[in-house]
Amino acid sequence: MREFELNLSVEELEKRTNKDYLITKKMLKCDAPEYLSLEEGDKQALKHLVKAAYILEKINMQIDCHHNLEFKEYLEKEISRGNRQAELTKILFDAQKGMNAIDTMSNKINLAKGIVELPGKGVYPEDLSKEEFHSILTKMINEGKINEVKKILTQRSVVERANDELVGIDYIDKFREDFSKMADEIDKASETSTNQDFSEYLKLQAKALRTADPMLDAYADKKWATLQDTPLEFTITRENYEDEMTGTIVENKELSALLDKHGIKPIPKDFLGGRVGIVNKKGTEALMAIKKYLPTLAQNMPYSDEYEQNINPNQDTKQTMVDVDLVAVTGDVGAYRGGITLAENLPNDDKLSLTIGGGRRNVYHRQIRFISDMKKLQERLDEILDKEQHKYYLDEADHWFTIGHENAHSLGPKKACETLGKYRNIIEENKADMGSLAFVDLLTELGMYTQEQRKQIIVTTIADNFLKSKPTLSQAHRVRTVMQNKYFSDRGAYDIIDGKIHVNIDKVVPIAKEMLSEIIRIQIEGDFDKAEKYVLDNFIWTDNMELIAQKLQKVSKSLNGRTESELAEKLLND
């Protein structure tokens, strides 16, 4: 077994694992009424799905970092010897689901000395530089090895060295044994599930884990995106925010031209997460209220006549939505790295299912959005928000904004915008935020929101947009908030008066519409240089942002976070 040198001191680890510094999001407990009220067949299915999700976590750890599994084994050995430093390190390792992450202050956290996060994570060779990567691809294309290059640049392959070349190995082939075990558990769940549609989806998903065929994934995704009235939720999330190596290709004009000539799209690698939960019917009914308005929103998107989008005003809206009580979030979707996701709109635009008539599905995470400490929330408002506007701050309004954000992912250009490289995800997340804000007035006119709710969404969104620290450019979800704060400040959407945010409510939506139009134009044109200029022009950490950040740091000491999954752990051991 490899030996590691632990990077964080016992003193630092004790601080980071203290309850004041470590946020805990609690998933469903063993006595949760949502679980107890399930039919026996669904309880059995849930047990198998939890087991499948944790197998997936093991797979994702390997594509996240080459050393995650051996480091985990090392920590467990050291803990058995009574090593306190290893015991505390393991708490953070389990929380961030890997050796390397970023905390809520945007500091890089490396749990072992000498092992840092790489642009290619665990999906590219550790010693592969950007320059060598580009050089090898260019050489292989010039030698006519087009199919080999396609396998390297698909979103579902691990890339390894093969003499002086590279080879792409499909995830299913690379991790065949574990994917097969997953498929077995999912098949067992399909046999006891009480819902025919859900069982059919599970069978398709299990089949896709046994054979390296992207079309099998597409069939499973297509079925999953139709699920609306099921007792259980099971998702394999596949998102490519973590891969920073593939996106560098668009910066190499010669290589990009060669790829374009041969019809090869360099799509960033997927990282894999597992979500297991119980569908909350009441919460889901509330979500569905917006569905009838989606075609109208699609028609009102900027430049809507210049592109195709997922929501077609002339057809049935292929968009399902569920609110879910979470049993477990594993792998990529459950990793607490600076934050954890509130909801997801999948499949993403690069997925094959959308080309065969599939739709998209929004899943909202109830346990993650719940605020456990209202006293802390009030302290935060007292520090940063004009007292006269406290009446408009509502934590539920953040959920309404998130609903708008997730639906906005289905609006705008349908193409995946790979040509925007490392700025693609920043631009897309910015679009989703601005899409949510830009339509608040229209949805109020249509009767979705009251005038009071309109003000609550606007004030809550602006107040929540301020961060505790300046993010790095690799944090797409946080970079876009800085961009928005700068953009809104320059145009008078808010003022900082006596150290507090005062939202100029009636200015926010028109400014959001303006920013949305600029973002959509960038996505339509697909010009990397324009995307880069737009991001860098707006990604400016101002004195006012630092002022509010200092206040936020005073109220909240949190540096890291984790999930606690009591029911899932019990089911794992059954």
Key attributes of the depicted protein:
574 residues; alpha+beta; two-stranded parallel ribbon; 13 strands; 49% helix
Detailed description of the structure:
The chain is 49% helix and 13% strand. It is of the alpha+beta class. The chain has a domain at 66-117. A five-stranded mixed sheet has the order 6-7-8-10-9. The chain has a two-stranded parallel sheet with strand order 1-13. Strands 2-3 form a two-stranded antiparallel ribbon. Helix 17 (395-408) crosses helix 18 (424-438). It is globular, with a radius of gyration of 23 Å.
Uncertain spans, ≥5 residues at pLDDT below 50?
none
User: Largest sheet, if any?
Assistant: 5 strands, mixed
Task: State the total count of DSSP E strands.
Answer: 13
Radius of gyration: 23 Å
Overall pLDDT metric: 96
Strand order of the largest sheet: 6-7-8-10-9
Helix proportion range: 40-55%
Structural class: alpha+beta
| Percentage of β-strand residues | 5-15%
Brief characterization of the structure:
It contains 25 helices and 13 strands. With 574 residues, the chain is of the alpha+beta class. The mean pLDDT is 96.
Chain-wise SSE layout:
Layout: H1 10-16, E1 22-26, H2 33-36, H3 40-64, H4 68-80, H5 84-96, E2 100-102, E3 108-110, H6 130-142, H7 146-152, E4 157-162, E5 165-170, H8 171-174, H9 176-192, H10 196-208, H11 214-224, E6 232-239, H12 253-261, E7 271-279, H13 281-287, H14 294-299, E8 319-331, E9 343-346, E10 360-365, H15 366-369, H16 374-384, H17 395-408, H18 424-438, H19 440-445, H20 451-464, H21 476-490, E11 494-497, E12 500-503, H22 505-525, H23 528-538, H24 543-555, E13 560-564, H25 566-573
Parallel strand pairs: 1-13, 8-10
Antiparallel strand pairs: 2-3, 4-5, 6-7, 7-8, 9-10, 11-12
Helix pairs in contact: 1-5, 3-9, 4-5, 6-12, 9-10, 10-11, 16-24, 17-18, 17-20, 18-21, 18-22
